[in-house]
């Protein structure tokens, strides 16, 4: 999402906020990348790590009926992660895994998915 008052013709890095924690994008921090979803939604690497840990490794599910995934805008049957800070923002399992794969391939970033306690390959 974008900071209130963002000049849409001249968007700066710090205008880009994570939908899940509200932090601005810091392009100088390669460990905290920002990934873009549909309709100007964004998730930062920190939130993606939390989501990956909770959904993939711990099997949590924060599904709320009728709440579509913030990133792909689909109401999916798979598990959903919501940030405790912004419960109206949600991330589906598919987006978590796709985002993790995309970020790990991106040479500009050092982000790696969290390693699970039992299954390091997941
Ligand atoms: Zn975030
Ligand atoms: Zn999704």
Care to describe what's here?
The structure is a single chain. The chain is α+β, with helices and mostly antiparallel strands and 122 residues long. 21% of the residues lie in helices and 10% in strands. The chain has helices spanning 45-57, 93-105; strands at residues 34-36, 42-44, 80-82, 90-92. A two-stranded antiparallel ribbon has the order 1-2. A two-stranded antiparallel sheet has the order 3-4. The mean pLDDT is 92. Bound molecules: zinc ion (2 copies). Residues 18, 20-21, 23, 44, 46-47 line the site of one zinc ion.
In short:
This protein is an alpha+beta fold and 122 residues long. Helices cover 21% and strands 10% of the residues. It has one domain (13-105).
SSE map:
Elements: E1 34-36, E2 42-44, H1 45-57, E3 80-82, E4 90-92, H2 93-105
Antiparallel strand pairs: 1-2, 3-4
The structure holds zinc ion (2 copies).
Residues 69, 71-72, 74, 92, 94-95 line the site of one zinc ion.
**Unreliable residue runs:** none
Strand content: 5-15%
Largest sheet: 2 strands, antiparallel
Shape: globular
Strand order, sheet with most strands: 1-2
Structural class category: alpha+beta
* Small-molecule binders: zinc ion
The radius of gyration computed from the alpha-carbon positions, rounded to a whole number of angstroms, is 14 Å
Q: Determine the fraction of residues in helical runs and give it as a percent range.
A: 10-25%
The number of helical segments is: 2
Helix and strand pattern: EEHEEH
Number of strands: 4
Mean pLDDT: 92
């Amino acid at each position: 999402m974008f900071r209130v008052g963002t000049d849409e013709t001249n968007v700066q890095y710090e205008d880009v906020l994570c939908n899940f924690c509200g932090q601005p994008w810091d392009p100088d921090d390669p460990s905290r990348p920002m990934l873009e979803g549909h309709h100007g939604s964004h998730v930062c690497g920190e939130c993606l790590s939390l989501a990956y840990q909770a959904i993939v490794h711990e099997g949590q599910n924060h599904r709320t009926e009728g709440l579509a995934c913030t990133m792909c805008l689909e109401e999916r049957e798979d598990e959903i992660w919501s940030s405790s800070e912004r419960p109206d923002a949600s991330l589906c399992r598919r987006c978590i895994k796709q985002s993790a794969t995309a970020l790990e391939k991106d040479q500009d970033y050092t982000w790696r998915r969290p390693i699970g306690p039992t299954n390091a390959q997941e």
